[in-house]
Amino acid sequence: MHRNVYTFAFYLLLPLYFARLCWKGAYNREYFFRWSERLGISKDSPTKNKPLIWVHAVSVGEVNASMPLLRRLITEYPNIEILVTTTTPTGSKLLLERLGGTVKHQYLPVDLPLCIKPFLDHWQPKALILLETEIWPNLINLCKQKGIKTALVNARLSEKSKSNYLKYNSLIKESIDSLDLILAQYESDRLRFNEISQIKKIDICGNLKFDQDIPSELNEISLNIRKDWSINGKVRPTLIASSTHEGEEYIVLDAFKKILKVSPESLLILVPRHLERFERVKGILQESKIPFVSRSMREDVSKDTKILLGDTIGELNFLYSLADVAFIGGSLIDHGGQNLLEPSAQSLALLSGPSLRNFSDISEQLIQNNALAVVHDAEELCNRYLFLIEDESTCNAIGAKAYKVFMKNRGALDAILNKLKPLISNVI
Asked: What amino acid positions are annotated as catalytic residues?
């Protein structure tokens, strides 16, 4: 596909883009605001005589992953200004909560020259750091025209994404070739990028998400909370089902009903993947007739509570700290799985469905180290959970293996900063 065709099609589809924002606004009113930023109009301004580095982190997951990198950039380059763009209100909120006024922030403009040019003219970034798989043809092309150095950091490319990109090979190949640097997570990612483009400047640095730090006080807080949830002085066995997608809640609830017949004191923490599905999942729980409370309403977990609905943003690490076993969603449907790193960092025994293509490298490591068990249906999910909670030492040992894999993979942050140093030093 030629870029002109892509751009023309994007202009035609622009009304649908804003219609989608309105649809999302039905679940999160923040989508109704700051549309001017999405059109490239900036309300904030860069600081005069201070070089600016631009980092793009699309949503909550990428913002979380970028935190160690952003903090190190702030510390190691005190004379630069950092602009962070996101595309979602949840990513924006998390960024401002974590870093506040230490960085500039606005939404990423849509990938049209009419929107990107005024954005670039206003901010005048010296370099752009894109996270994971954010390949926007017009954005990258205009940065190249203006001499703005571009790096794709923590880059990953699933087999499915590679196949989709190959359908539009000329456009994506040109965009990848225009990048100044690609820092891939794994060798498999590098090979997939090379199938699209024979770009030479690809280094393997590991996965930045392994370098996230869990707050030291979290363990003590979670222990106290779990004591409060105890029944007859015994801590309740707890399963967290995180990042669940449409259709998976029914499977999880079917499994949990079976679990309750054997372990009636068990607690389920259910965390849907997307904010706009919170009300839908709440309705599913109401239909199930299983007693539940909502985290967003700050309702207390009593001895009669069977499910805690995690309908909040930015609390997933906290909720993981309250569990013994984690089932990671997006895996019992054909989605490709979700992030396995956060529960690994908290030494949880891990369960997942078979669809893991988005995280193939880390899932293979976890499976090979007997830290992750793959389940295919409600029956297997129930049986595996009951097996784990029956023997606390076995459950803890499996969780320790997950943590060992997590720790073994740390170090990407230093590797990425070392590779970025020449690029940043040459432009500031």
From this structure: 62
